[in-house]
Amino acid sequence: MLCLALVCAFTGCGLEPKVPTEEPAGDPPVASTAAPTVQPTPTVVQIPTETATPDPYGHEVLGESWEGRPVVGHRFGTGPRKVVLVGNIHGGTEKNTHQLALEMIAYFEKDLDNVPPEVTLWIIPTANPDGLANGTRGNGHLVDLNRNADTDGDACAENDWVKDTHTTEGINEGGGGPEPFSEVETQLLRDFVEDAEVAIFYHSMAGMIFVTSCADHVASERLARRLSEATGYPFAAEGWVSYPVTGAIVDYLAQQGVAAAEVELETKVDSEFDRNLAGVRAVLQSLDQIASSP
Ligand SMILES: [Zn+2]
Questions:
Q1: CB atoms inside a 10 Å sphere around CB 15
Q2: Beta bridge mates, 200
Q3: Share in percent of the chain as helix, strand, coil (round to 5)
Q4: What residues pack around ion ligand 1 (CB closer than 5 A)?
Q5: Which of 22, 106, 203, 272 is most deeply buried (CB count within 10 A of its CB)?
Q6: CA 204 to ligand 1 centroid distance, Å
Q7: Quick check: is 169 in a domain?
């Protein structure tokens, strides 16, 4: 039971597709054919004196799963520092992490003052709505979304993406997907989260906190230690030792400079809300210490 729970350690997410907006090309320059005889009237540029105040709360569909279910992000605040919580990536086998995220959303809807003004907090209740609906750990293709990231770019080889992944029960053939980021859900997570300062992913039920198994990212370790102090879950600095964890989203995000950690709840039943709220609030008050370089 414990072993099965421990398999779950690791995740990632990101959503808002960033469609670059390009400036329209505008009119082509017209060559001047004659010197002006009259002084041109200076163009007056209208500078708006008022801009609309952004709504402090909103939610948006970040994308769709393979089976067409929406992946939704709930936003709290409008500050420049992006913090993302992903409630559930391992679907129906870790339902209580989804419940935790829903309770977090309800809390911050009532207590938006707990989001510092410089922060935008995003909460994604589930990055794996198909697995949640179908009762599976994997997505609609039975790919493990926390084994599907491209983790080949860091300093260690042990966590590199592989097609057939390790589990407590042995090898899960095809668990990593046909190639890194083959799944729409992991693509969406990658694109949404990789510009965040902090990302936290919830799992159950190892009762520990993990970061990249490459153990080479100081900001992620600082995040994990802060979370551990506030929640009481121990930080497993040595990582998951029973078998290689490959293609985990926190490993990918650490490569990108995002402070990323996984919180494993202690059971598969309760949301363990109070201690996890304490963890999130501690992190929101500690961004300068966590995210400072290196
Ligand atoms: Zn998990």
A1: 24
A2: 85, 261
A3: 30, 15, 55
A4: 8, 90, 94, 203
A5: 203
A6: 6
A7: yes
Please give the distance, rounded to the nearest whole angstrom, from the Cα atom of residue 7 to the centre of ligand 1: 7
- Residues 6 or more apart in contact with residue 238 via CB below 8 angstroms: 215
**Residue 20: inside a domain:** no
- Residue 237's closest CA among 252, 225, 251? 225
Alpha-carbon dihedral of residues 202, 203, 208, 211, nearest 10 degrees? -60
In this model, does residue 111 exceed pLDDT 60?
A: yes
What range does the domain containing 190 cover? Answer: 2-12+55-291
Q: Give which of 235, 239, 217, 219 is closest to 227, Cα–Cα.
A: 235
pLDDT digits (tens, 9 = 90+) for 201-221: 999 999 999 999 998 999 999
Ligand 1 centroid–CA 199 distance in Å is 15
Give the side-chain half-sphere CA count within 13 A for 235.
19
Distance 26 CA to ligand 1 centre (A): 50
Q: Ligand 1 center to residue 153 CA distance, Å?
A: 23
200, 85 contact by CB (below 8 A):
yes
CATH number of the domain within which 109 lies: 3.40.630.10
If you measure from the C-alpha of residue 4 to the centroid of ligand 1, how many angstroms do you get, rounded to a whole number? Answer: 10
CB 285 within 8 A of CB 81: no
Could you tell me the sign of the dihedral formed by the alpha carbons of 258, 206, 7, 93, in that order?
Answer: negative
- The answer to whether residue 26 sits within a structural domain is no
pLDDT digits (tens, 9 = 90+) for 57-108: 999 999 999 999 999 999 999 999 999 999 999 999 999 999 999 999 999 9
Q: Which residues contact 253 (CB under 8 A, 6 or more apart)?
A: 12, 193, 194, 196, 199, 212, 260
In this structure, is residue 140 part of a structural domain?
yes
